[in-house]
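Example for tutorial group B:
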């Protein structure tokens, strides 16, 4: 089966009505049978929709299709690149993590790394990515190493892989 056919068929299985086209659910809230039902939903004891910004049937279908197409177990669709960058760094670096980033990254990403994430224990070292000695000196040999916005990509990937670290690349300016 072709990947796009597989993706469409796989995500369609999750819909109750089995319709040909995925409906767009234009709602922000959902009805609960009673307060216990609502508490179970918000407590994640009962799977299902809670609130349009947290769970959304249309978004759920999109995420399932992307996961199926990419061969993944799940996907997360977000409203902006900034959200994707923030979610990814928070998940990978967590409290106490360290990031090596290009000095000239996008302003929003710079502010996130330089001003916001330090409040959550995530530290960033900004480097001239063209100065490989500076990049290498900034890398800490810990499992929490993650790199963001690399322009000299092949050389830097080599440095990272030699240390068995993860690599995160923001492709905005490439």
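The residue assignment follows.
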């Amino acid at each position: 089966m072709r990947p796009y056919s597989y993706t469409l068929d796989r995500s369609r299985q999750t819909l109750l009505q089995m319709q040909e086209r995925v409906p767009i659910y234009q709602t922000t809230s959902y009805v609960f049978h009673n307060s216990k039902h609502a508490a179970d939903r918000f407590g994640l004891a009962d799977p299902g929709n809670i609130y349009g910004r947290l769970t959304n049937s249309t978004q759920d279908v999109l995420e399932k299709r992307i996961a199926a197409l990419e061969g993944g177990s799940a996907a997360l669709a977000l409203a902006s690149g900034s959200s994707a960058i923030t979610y990814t760094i928070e998940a990978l670096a967590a409290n106490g993590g360290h990031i090596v980033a290009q000095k000239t990254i996008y302003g929003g990403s710079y502010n996130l790394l330089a001003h916001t994430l330090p409040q959550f224990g995530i530290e960033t070292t900004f480097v001239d990515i063209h100065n490989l000695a500076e990049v290498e000196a900034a890398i800490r040999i810990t499992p929490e190493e993650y790199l963001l916005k690399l322009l000299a990509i092949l050389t830097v990937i080599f440095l990272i892989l030699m240390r068995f670290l993860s690599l995160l690349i923001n492709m905005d300016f490439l």
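The chain is about 40% helix and 10% strand. Compare this with the pattern of hydrophobic and polar residues in the output above.
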